[in-house]
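Have a close read of this protein, sequence plus structure tokens, and explain what the tokens say about the fold. Thanks in advance:
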Amino acid sequence: MRTIRVEEVYRIHGTASVSVPEDVSLEYVITRFAREPGVRGIFLIDTNERFVGLITRNDLLKWAHIRLFGGKGRYEITVSEIFRLANAVKAKDLLRGNQRELSVKETDTLQTALDKMLDYEEDALPVVDGERRILGDLRISEVLLKAIEVGRQT
């Protein structure tokens, strides 16, 4: 089986993510998600326009649950995470851990990208260049189409 690179796959559907400065208000991020239902993720960038983290719908669901119900009954949310999310004001306040590893490069294998998607339970990853500037995103829909294409060839 030949090696499939991210660069062969990630531009099939265009992009479903937006990039915003990490210091933008959380309210702005929430409004973008609410008004643009096709957005899969918000990529946060630093002042040099380099990828620093990813906010997903799941992050915002946790935030909403804590905001509305204090996280009651959600045992997978730790106490420290509840405090972190409850006190979030800026987009970067929602980031969990070091998320720089959530990106892939065009030259990475599709297997590496899919492993990251599975390991981190994300359905969209930023594709970055050597300076960590965002080139686009790799989505699960693109991976699925590639899997069908490969299946037809064998």
